[in-house]
Amino acid sequence: MSQVLEAKAVKPNENAMYLYTNFLEMIWPYDDRGRLIGEDVWEPDPDKAEIIKLDPEDVLTTQQAATLLAPLIKPLP
What whole-number distance in Å separates Cα of residue 58 and Cα of residue 56? Predict the structure, then answer.
């Protein structure tokens, strides 16, 4: 990640969280029986990517996310 940040002229901070946004293109090939046989994902134009340093108050911990999402997750049968 530090290489990506440096390429965008952003000084990396090991204690910070960043949001990386860009367009992706994906192709999923299937066989003649409709089974997924591969995946191809790429960024057509990495130079258009944006990197945003997040405010620590806007970043959830895994525990906070689990607490917020638990009521929405149905148990398996």
Answer: 5
The predicted-structure confidence for 21-71, as pLDDT tens digits, reads as follows: 999 999 999 999 999 999 999 999 988 888 889 999 999 999 999 999 999
Q: Domain range holding 60?
A: 2-72
The residue assigned the tokens 């990640």 is 1
Full-model pTM: 0.61
Structural domains counted in the chain: 1
Among 9, 42, 38, 14, smallest CA distance to 26 is for 42
Residue type, 35: R
Select from 47, 46, 2, 4 the least CA-distant residue to 24: 46
Task: Give the residue from 60, 56, 48, 61 showing the smallest Cα distance to 21.
Answer: 48
